[in-house]
Specification:
The relative contact order is 0.11. Helices cover 34% and strands 17% of the residues. By secondary structure, the protein is α/β, with parallel strands linked by helices. It folds into three domains: 92 residues, no CATH class; 52 residues, no CATH class; 67 residues, no CATH class. Strand 6, helix 7 and strand 7 form a beta-alpha-beta unit. A five-stranded mixed β-sheet has the order 1-2-3-5-4, with helices on both faces. A three-stranded parallel β-sheet has the order 7-6-8, sandwiched between helices. Helix 2 crosses helix 5. It starts with a helix and ends with a helix.
Length: 229
């Protein structure tokens, strides 16, 4: 709820057991996301990263110049968050446990992510086995952390009258398609009108309706345009 940021940060700091950070391409430069992550660190909230395939860590230069890297960073001062606190948060994030998403995100792979999040019990059982996930301790020059690699698990085929077309180069769009699919299940229990999400290799065969998930740059992606026409 971005209409009341004081309340938002209070929820993160005082009413959150585990903060799950969805590491997409822009999350580290979005000021309110940075504010939430910093609040979690300052209040010792347990946290875990879910890393998308196209995510990249901010460079050392970006961290040192975070007031430029994070647009509107100065606005966090109103909530007691300084530039120095943000720099420490970027360093803190590198030592958090992380779940690595596969390049091709499916419902089955997201089920594995949920299983990993549930079985870890706020970090108390970080290495408990989960089907479709390989776990290990890893490290870089910044820190040592638990790393969970999710396998690319294909979804089981199901007959449907609806196909969903999405740009698979945009992982947020893929997750949007998966979310829409799950929400529609409550309205179509027979599943014949719950969309089948097309892979880049799929062709439209027996479906009568095409649900097009429009995202930035989707019409510049060859597989998306081919399936559309």
């Amino acid at each position: 709820n971005l209409e009341d940021l004081a309340l938002l940060f209070a929820h993160v700091g005082n009413q959150t057991e585990t903060l799950i950070v969805l590491c997409t391409t822009e999350v580290m430069s979005r000021v309110w996301c940075v504010g939430e992550m910093t609040t979690a660190r300052l209040h010792a909230v347990e946290a875990i990263l879910v890393i998308f395939p196209d995510f990249g860590w901010p460079s050392t230069e970006s961290i040192e110049n975070c007031a430029v890297y994070v647009d509107g960073l100065q606005s966090l001062a109103e909530y007691g968050i300084s530039e120095g606190m943000v720099k420490e948060t970027f360093k803190w994030l590198r030592g958090l446990p992380r779940i690595l998403l596969p390049k091709e995100i499916t419902r089955a792979s997201m089920d594995a992510v949920v299983g990993r999040l549930l079985v870890r019990k706020s970090g108390k059982q970080e290495t408990s086995p989960v089907e479709g996930v390989s776990s290990q301790l890893s490290s870089d020059h910044e820190a040592t952390f638990a790393q969970h690699q999710v396998s690319s698990i294909p979804d089981s085929a199901a007959a449907s009258q609806v196909a969903a077309l999405v740009d698979h180069s945009n992982q947020e769009a893929v997750c949007t398609a998966l979310l829409i699919r799950e929400l529609l299940k409550a309205h179509f229990p027979l599943l014949d009108l719950v969309p089948r999400i097309l892979t880049e290799q799929d062709t439209i065969t027996g479906e009568t309706t095409l649900l097009v998930i429009c995202s930035n740059g989707c019409f510049q992606h060859g597989a998306f345009v081919r399936q559309l026409f």
